[in-house]
TrEMBL record:
Organism: Myroides odoratimimus CIP 101113
Name of the featured protein: Mechanosensitive ion channel MscS domain-containing protein
Pfam families cross-referenced by the UniProt entry: MS_channel_1st_1 (PF05552), MS_channel_2nd (PF00924)
Membrane topology: Multi-pass membrane protein
Subcellular location: Cell membrane
Family: Belongs to the MscS (TC 1.A.23) family.
GO molecular function (one): mechanosensitive monoatomic ion channel activity
GO cellular component, one term: plasma membrane
Length: 255
């Protein structure tokens, strides 16, 4: 019992001795987190004032914030009595072990760097990648945030994104639509083409140059399939496509 009392007394003394360091560390943690948030807001204002590319600024902010958090962790550990040199050695060993176990995450980080450097897309672009189509909201360190047409948020890992096929729909402002239009076999096929051509030429959301074209893609005994080629601005793509299908049906029914 005497030995147990001695051990308990020693532990209590050690805890009392470390209370100031623990309190100080908590204060440093609170101040440090506040400083990081303040610097984050300040950096955002500076990037906005300097008209820095949002894609670049978002990625750099993520890197800086994580770097400051790691620095804060090191400072607190040092305040608690952990030797910095030993701590660095431990961090190095942990980094090696974590690096081997998290190769996917490292490839995602490298993918994020490649996206920032080569800019296959930017924040605000509409892309099609990994089976998803939507607007790029944010490019994080490890993933890219995309808002789909169904209003879903999708996070695509940067590793597979940078190594896979990416279709940037909004990189060029103009877009060609190829619309398949099918009708029954008409006696007045030429009249159908002429009337549809007139509608396309007069529709303000279809560009006059290059001029819309109507081509016969398939001719069978009972039906004809046309390919309607129109050039539109990206914002008008869906509306113009619907308009062509509607007018084709109206003209076909009238003949």
């Amino acid at each position: 019992m005497q030995k147990l009392d001695t051990l308990l007394s020693r532990y209590i003394e050690d805890i009392i001795t470390y209370i100031p360091e623990i309190v100080t560390s908590l204060i440093i943690l609170g101040i440090g987190l506040w400083v990081i948030r303040f610097l984050q807001r300040l950096a955002k204002r500076i990037f906005l004032k300097k008209n820095i590319d949002p894609t670049f600024s978002s990625f750099i902010l993520d890197v800086l914030i994580w770097g400051m958090r790691i620095l804060l962790f090191v400072i607190i550990a040092s305040k608690l009595g952990i030797q910095t040199s030993s701590f660095v050695a431990i961090i190095g060993a942990m980094s090696l072990a974590i690096g081997l176990s998290l190769q996917g995450s490292l490839s995602n980080f490298a993918g994020g760097v490649l996206i920032i450097l080569f800019k296959p897309f930017r924040i605000g672009d509409i892309i099609e990648a990994q089976g998803e189509t939507g607007k790029v909201l944010t490019i994080h360190i490890f993933s890219t945030q995309v808002l789909t047409y169904q209003n879903n948020i999708v996070y695509i890992p940067n590793g597979v994104l940078s190594n896979g096929k990416i279709k940037n729909i909004t990189q060029n402002n103009l877009r060609r639509a190829e619309i398949a239009v099918q009708t029954t076999l008409l006696k007045n096929t030429t009249v159908f083409i002429e009337k549809l051509q007139e509608e396309l030429d007069s529709y303000d959301k279809v560009l006059s140059q290059p001029r819309p074209r109507i081509l016969i893609r398939e001719l069978l005994d009972t039906k004809i399939t046309y390919t309607v080629q129109i050039w539109v601005e990206n914002d008008n793509f869906t509306v113009a496509t619907s308009y062509v299908l509607l007018k084709a049906r109206e003209i076909s029914d009238a003949l």
